[in-house]
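hey
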């Protein structure tokens, strides 16, 4: 069993309304010194295959479904 992590985040320059709203709310709760908040999606996928094949499968998952390459970057790693 191989576990991969898929991290998906917006590219620089793409508006992140969830991150902005989270920052505003944290500040309204009294948290200070917050320079920026960015939202990130993290998927943990268990695959019944060797690590090399799991990485390739994770890349394909991102290309076909999980990520929008126009506005998002992604990284697949084996845990």
């Amino acid at each position: 069993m191989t576990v991969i992590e898929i991290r998906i985040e917006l590219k620089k320059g793409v508006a992140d309304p969830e991150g902005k709203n989270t920052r505003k709310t944290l500040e309204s709760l009294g948290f200070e010194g917050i320079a920026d908040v960015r939202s990130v999606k993290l998927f943990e996928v268990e695959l019944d295959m060797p690590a090399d094949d799991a990485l390739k499968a994770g890349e394909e998952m991102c290309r076909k479904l999980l990520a929008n390459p126009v506005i998002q970057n992604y990284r697949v790693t084996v845990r």
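Residues 51-66 form the longest helix (16 residues). The chain has a mean pLDDT of 98.
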